[in-house]
Amino acid sequence: MIGAIGLEEGWRALGLCVFNLIGTLLLVVANAWQISFGLLPLGVAYLVVARYYRASSRELQRLDSVSKSPIYAAFSEALQGATSIVAFGATRRFGLEARQRLDANIKVGFATAAANRWLSVRLEAIGNAIIAGVAALAVGLHAAAHASGGGGAAMAAGLAGLSLSLSLSYAVSLTDFLNWALRMSTTLEMQMVNIVNELASGEGGRVHGAKCLAVLAGVA
């Protein structure tokens, strides 16, 4: 039930993030349609980065779970057999083994942090490219307004520059929306996989239990 509630909240947050992202992009394109020519290659780059990160994130999550299981199992065994460990003088050996397991899990955590930084750098580069394009258009229109020397053309260029300034203020938040959308989709994917695995293990346990009951009934 807790996983289902978290999944529902995650979908709601992802929908809100995607809505904000689409709205910001539409606002930027509406005020600076020239930037739309650069959105296609940037969109392709975003999809490539997202695909690579999601695959890596799944594997890192799996490695984190695999490296944590021995830590919990060994800790539980050490608690149950603490008297025997002390009696046989194996405290140092168990301590070294525990450190090795912790080191293995910390290595996975370091790789996860490195993957997050890798993603942040590339998403910030994509967002900064959009911001740079809008800023370049705004500067160009401002220069054109001054070069025209006045009149209706200068006023039109000035109004276009103001619209681009509005787009620029919204384009700054694109990096956060891109990052949030990708991380939320990756988290939801991992949550759904975990729920499916839990349901599969539950079904398997019930089937195994039913078989055991059938065998016992036959023996009786």
Describe the structure.
11% of the residues are buried. Helix 1 runs antiparallel to helix 6. The chain has six helices and no strands. Helix content is 93%, strand content 0%. The protein is elongated and about 90 Å long. It has one domain: ABC transporter transmembrane region fold (Up-down Bundle). The chain has 220 residues and is mostly helical. It comes from Emiliania huxleyi (strain CCMP1516). Keywords: ATP-binding, Membrane, Nucleotide-binding, Transmembrane, Transmembrane helix, Transport. This is ABC transmembrane type-1 domain-containing protein. InterPro entries: ABC1_TM_dom, ABC1_TM_sf, ABC_transporter_C-like. One of its GO terms (molecular function) is ABC-type transporter activity.
Mean pLDDT: 75
Instruction: Summarize the amount of helix as a percent range.
Output: over 70%
What is the architecture at the second tier of CATH? Answer: Up-down Bundle
Radius of gyration: 28 Å
